[in-house]
Automatic annotation (TrEMBL):
Superkingdom assignment: Bacteria
Active-site residue numbers: Y31 (proton acceptor)
CYTH domain mapped to chain residues: 2-148
Organism: Brumimicrobium aurantiacum
Name under which the protein is recorded: CYTH domain-containing protein
Length: 148
């Protein structure tokens, strides 16, 4: 079974904007299903596309299954099944043994910047970059599926 262990943080935009990498990848995603027990997401990330099924979040963990699909299929699914879409730019920042994924949202919440780190287990320790603010891992309003 696939498992995602993720912690999420708000970002200090002023510090981040001075340090962020020059190049990010555009992500467009929508949700075919977004009931609390399970979400089904379609995502285009640059030239790649994926369908992802996620279970209910327990703490900072949940089951996750993600599979590549043809980009043309993803475009069609986004158009046919997803009334609203999230558009964001993702930046990757290597730090120690981890990669931070920092998302700058264009829609539906322009200006929102969130950082995520995926861990091997819930008790992993990691250093916090100076551009992190409060942790929001347990706040459902910051789950992408709840933003639309």
């Amino acid at each position: 079974m696939g498992k995602e262990i993720e912690r999420k943080f708000l970002v200090d935009e002023e510090i981040w904007s001075a340090l962020k990498p020059q190049k990010g990848v555009e992500i467009i995603q929508g949700y075919i299903s977004k009931v609390p027990e399970k979400t089904v997401r379609v995502r285009i990330k640059g030239e790649e596309a994926f369908i992802t099924i996620k279970g209910i979040t327990k703490g900072v963990s949940r089951s996750e299954f993600e599979y590549p699909i043809p980009k043309e299929d993803a475009l069609e699914m986004l158009e046919e099944f997803c009334d609203q879409k999230i558009v964001k730019t993702r930046y990757f920042v290597e730090q120690g043994n981890y990669t931070w994924e920092v998302d700058e949202f264009d829609s539906p919440q322009p200006g929102l910047v969130l950082a995520e780190i995926e861990l091997q287990n819930e008790n992993d320790t990691f250093s916090r970059p100076k551009w992190l603010l409060e942790e929001v891992s347990d706040q459902p309003k910051y789950f992408n599926s709840n933003m639309i």
